[in-house]
Design brief:
The structure is a single chain. By secondary structure, this protein is of the alpha+beta class. It folds into three domains: about 220 residues, DD-peptidase/beta-lactamase superfamily (Beta-lactamase, 3-Layer(aba) Sandwich); about 100 residues, D-tyrosyl-trna(Tyr) Deacylase, Chain: A (3-Layer(bba) Sandwich); about 60 residues, no CATH class. It is built from ten helices and 17 strands. Helix 2 runs antiparallel to helix 5, helix 3 crosses helix 4 and helix 6 packs across helix 7.
């Protein structure tokens, strides 16, 4: 009797797996790769193309988050320091804090003896020697709101807000920005809003129309030249302080022979990572990547891709998972050069289930203000991370609703637009797996 029940269960399970796979592949032509199984299982319950290297897109953030928790720790804080040199100059030493604001800097700089201070403000960005923009992303991504420059000195998320206000019908609109840049304004007031922002050397170029009945539009873009952006931010802060001083940006350390007079600490990583993971913040995770790969490096890291070896080594140390020919050239997954096998990510996520802070940081099905807010057809026990770019859609995480938690990794590549078509297909497959 027992054998009969066992074989019937096996038949139904395997039949269900086959049905889910057929349903997946029949709905939209694409290259599908997936693997599903228990957190403690040596073998997957179902898999397909699990050893093919895929581009993980933002699912790469799970790797960065895990290493941040393990290599840096949930209690780790970024610290920005203000010091005075013997020559009377002020040195602001940055640590790569992606959460640092102009207000934080203003409060720290109030420690300067303003009445007597007549030196320079030296911006020390020596913590990272990598260029602000990785050479591994495509040119069209640069200076967008989602692909911002990342450096040791980060202020206000390295993001510029451009505000467009309608004027008289057919007349020029009012275009302003909070980054201190000059603007080539070619926006007119019309019937509907269609505006494009770009860079023209060191000026913001705004082209298009804004609806005459529309409220002021706030558009986001990132700086093309990071040093100019940081200098403008400091000039704005110093103007507010009524402190005339020359701003000098350097890439070598100036802490030697200085006296630290003030500092600012970020929130701990345990408070920074969960909201960033839930909304898939590229900026935060690329900043974490640079912090992780440079922290214990005996020599300066000059290129983003040089961090690949450090990431693989840390994965082996903390999780005992070999990544072999995987490639990690950033922390956000923005680059198409990143690659990983679904099986490798699956094994890492199996080990990662013991890191409860990480599991708790993943978005839940339908959770408001997260990447899963509209993915309401997923099972209620899903805790997951998405990965999306043109022609690529991935989903990885856990199903915690059951006696045995399950791990899943699924990627769809080379499908035709629209992207909105692929979400319900992947979500339906996951639902079928755990039905």
């Amino acid at each position: 009797m027992f054998k009969t029940v066992f074989y019937v269960c096996c038949f139904l399970f395997l039949n269900g797996c086959t049905s889910a796979h057929q349903k997946l592949t029949s709905q939209k032509p694409a290259f599908y790769a997936y693997i599903v199984g228990g957190v403690d299982s040596e073998n997957a319950s179902q898999e397909h193309n699990a050893d093919v290297y895929i581009t993980p897109a933002s699912c790469q953030k799970t790797v960065t988050a895990l290493l941040a928790y393990k290599a840096l720790g949930g209690d780790y804080v970024y610290e920005t320091k203000l010091a005075i040199t013997k020559a009377g100059h002020a040195v602001v030493t940055f640590s790569g804090d992606p959460t640092l604001s102009s207000e934080d800097l203003f409060e720290m700089l109030t420690a300067l003896p303003r009445k007597y201070f007549n030196g320079k403000i030296i911006v020390d960005g020596s913590a990272f020697q990598t260029p602000p923009y990785s050479r591994n992303i495509i040119v069209d991504d640069m200076a967008t709101s989602y692909a911002r420059p990342v450096a040791a000195a980060n202020i206000d998320g390295n993001l510029i807000t451009v505000t467009v206000t309608p004027g008289m019908f057919t007349k020029a609109a009012v275009v302003e920005n909070d980054g201190g840049y000059q603007i080539d304004n070619q926006v007119v007031t019309g019937e509907k809003s269609v505006i494009k922002l770009s860079w023209n050397k060191e000026r913001i170029k705004a082209i298009g129309t804004i609806g005459i009945s529309d409220q002021p539009l706030k558009l986001k873009m990132s700086p093309e030249n990071h040093d100019d952006y940081i200098a403008n931010k400091f000039k704005s802060i110093l103007k507010r302080m009524k402190l005339p001083a020359k701003v000098v940006i350097v890439k070598e350390s100036h802490l030697g022979g200085t006296q630290v007079i003030a500092s600012h600490q970020s929130e701990p990583l345990g408070a920074i990572i969960p909201p960033a993971l839930k909304i898939s913040d590229n900026f935060v995770f690329d900043a974490l990547y640079l912090k992780i790969i440079t922290r214990d490096s005996p020599t300066p890291i000059l290129k983003w891709e040089e961090g690949d070896a450090a990431i693989k080594s840390l994965i082996k140390i903390h999780f005992n998972v070999d990544m072999d020919k995987a490639l990690f050239v950033d922390g956000s997954g923005l680059s198409r050069y990143n690659r990983i096998q679904p099986r490798q990510l699956f094994k890492l996520l199996q080990k990662a289930y013991a890191v409860k802070e990480f599991v708790g940081a993943l978005a839940c099905m339908g959770e408001a203000n997260t990447i899963l807010k509209n993915r309401t057809t997923l099972p209620v026990g899903i805790r997951a991370k998405t990965g999306t770019m043109s022609g690529i859609n991935c989903l990885c995480g856990y199903n915690v609703d059951g006696d045995v938690p399950q791990v899943f990794v699924i990627g769809a590549h080379n499908f035709a637009p629209p992207l909105s078509d692929i979400h319900p297909i992947l979500d339906g497959f996951i639902a079928d797996c755990f039905e």
